[in-house]
Amino acid sequence: MAFNVKKLPLVEATPLQYLPTMSRELGIELYVKRDDLTALGAGGNKLRKLEYLAADAIDKGATMLLTVGGAQTNHGRLTAAVAAKYGLKCAIAAIDDYPGEVSANILLDRIMGCDLILKADDGTDEGAQFDRLVPQLVAEYEEKGEKVYPIPMGGSNALGALGYYDCAVELTEQAATLGLGDARVVSTVGSLGTYMGLFCGLKNENSPLRLTGVAISPFGEAKEKRLMEYFGEMKALYPLAFDAVREDFHIETGYTRGAYNNPCVEVRQAIYRMARAEAILLDPCYTGKAFAGLIDMVAEGKIQKDEKVIFLHTGGFPGLYTKHHRVEFERELIDGVRIIK
Ligand SMILES: Cc1ncc(COP(=O)(O)O)c(C=O)c1O
Questions:
Q1: Which of the listed CATH numbers 3.40.50.1100, 3.30.559.10, 3.40.50.300, 1.10.510.10 matches domain 46-155?
Q2: What is the torsion angle, in degrees rounded to the nearest 10, for the CA atoms of residue 226, residue 314, residue 34 and residue 270?
Q3: Sheet holding 148-151, edge to edge
């Protein structure tokens, strides 16, 4: 538990595993931290953040969690899972169109009893659209007697980041046990909470591990601003014994492949490679893209031959079933399906 902040016991230490075949193929010493194997709601990184966020909600007497994201948000699914586990109501608000079917995360959200509110994108700033939608929904649910605890996109605020501060401590101990020295940790960067928690945890605890983030969506001015603002929030709230400037954050921004959650052949190739070498399933939005970035970094010499690398698997496998990715998988994989009449 970081800094004596209240926390629910949702996540047990996840395995740190050596990947012999991928290591051989890539010419590095590759390990994977299995945060896809956290225990509730099909697993993933957001449970660590929710240990803190849901504890705060319960502490404040909330009866309901409400979060935001895209229709297929993994964070929304895990918020639904935690709400179910603790007898809270849950809703996800998305600025998105209905994909035409109750599938992938939407299916899992609904199975776990969570409401999903889809509001068509009106083309204006997404943050501003959420700023209008969320208070409206909070008012609606509160009129029905609920006490709503809003959770930001990806659970990425200063409280949520503590989940990955804790992961940094856990990983440092595991890596030391395996003799991994100053291994490089490679993490997906989306709404920044995972990276920020790891960054603060590794630095503040004097871990020898080095951190490289891989952005999975274009890292423009707004993200740059948010990065430093976010660190400022961490610094203001917690007794961090170090300071940081932009150059201290190592985030690779050249492997976004154009857009968020776009179907992309290099990402699918990375997914096939990992699945066929190690039977580990990556997802097409986050971890597949980050792993495709890792493969490129090895090819470009940014990751040295024989370097020890720990890839943080943040979960997300239901993304494999989203309609716009599924059609591409179908096209590439149907040739291995034999139908005998
Ligand atoms: C599977 C998966 N990996 C990585 C991330 C990125 O984490 P963060 O938003 O904390 O940067 C997300 C965020 O939704 C995710 O669902």
A1: 3.40.50.1100
A2: -120
A3: 115-119, 89-95, 64-69, 148-151
pLDDT tens digit sequence for 19-40 = 999 999 999 999 999 999 999 9
Query: Given the CA of residue 156, which atom of ligand 1 is nearest to it?
Result: 10
Residues of the chain with CATH 3.40.50.1100: 2-44+156-335, 46-155
CA-closest candidate to residue 66, choices 170, 140, 169: 140
Contact between 27 and 304 under an 8 Å Cβ cutoff? The reply is no
Centre of ligand 1 from the C-alpha of residue 143, in Å: 32
CA of 194 to the centre of ligand 1 (A): 7
Distance CA 36, CA 315 (A): 4
Structure tokens at 319: 């993304």
Give the tens place of pLDDT for each residue, 163-188.
999 999 999 999 999 999 999 999 99
Please report how many Cα atoms fall inside a 13 Å half-sphere around the Cα of residue 188, on the Cβ side. 30
